[in-house]
Amino acid sequence: MLRPLDLTTWPRRQIDQHFRQNPCAFNVTVPVDVTAFKSRVQEAGRPFVPVLIYVICTVVNRLPALRMGLSDDGQPGVWDSILPLYTVFHPETQTFSALWTRLGGGFDEFLRNDRADARAYGSSPDYRPKPGTPPNVLNISVAPWLGFSAFELNLGEGADYLLPIFTVGRYEESAGRRNFRTFGDAASVEWSVEQSGPQQIQARATVHPPFQGLEAVHLG
């Protein structure tokens, strides 16, 4: 459910009004050290990409500033929670589908849901093979074959789309460390500035979702 914000007391109401009247877009790409993350996933015997998707959603669900949306009449609000909408690549046609899955009550349930959706819809060539995509989905793309130093995504008429979008590339090893690049939209950086001040934005970016708080995510 989208919980409307009280615009008479919301501290960001003037900022919201300004950028609604003057829409713009910018993108942020940051390198993230995933050495410990990858090791923990391997030790737990878990599949990497579903864990990554689950962790992204788990951390975003802890941050109201990353769960914002608009009501039918254009009023800003915060979703109670988000679900993942992730890409499934079809190598035979070089196309992809967008599939959503319910998180459930923990990672084991999410993994069961993910595998069930993969069996039911994973081979479909349709762009949205699973019906009933809810409005509170978080777009996540994982491209393990693609290494990039920067990534840009522009939504043509996306001024009213407030949820972040995550794109994760191939991790690379250097000096015994594994790093990959992750791309996020304006919401991630804006939250960092509000919480920590501009002087700490670089430090925040290196541990920003989906990776901050990984130790608190139970993988079974």
Automatic annotation (TrEMBL):
Gene3D superfamilies: Chloramphenicol acetyltransferase-like domain. InterPro entries: CAT-like_dom_sf, Cmp_AcTrfase. It holds the Pfam family CAT. GO terms for molecular function: chloramphenicol O-acetyltransferase activity. It comes from the Bacteria. PANTHER family: CHLORAMPHENICOL ACETYLTRANSFERASE, SLR0299 PROTEIN. This is Chloramphenicol acetyltransferase CAT.
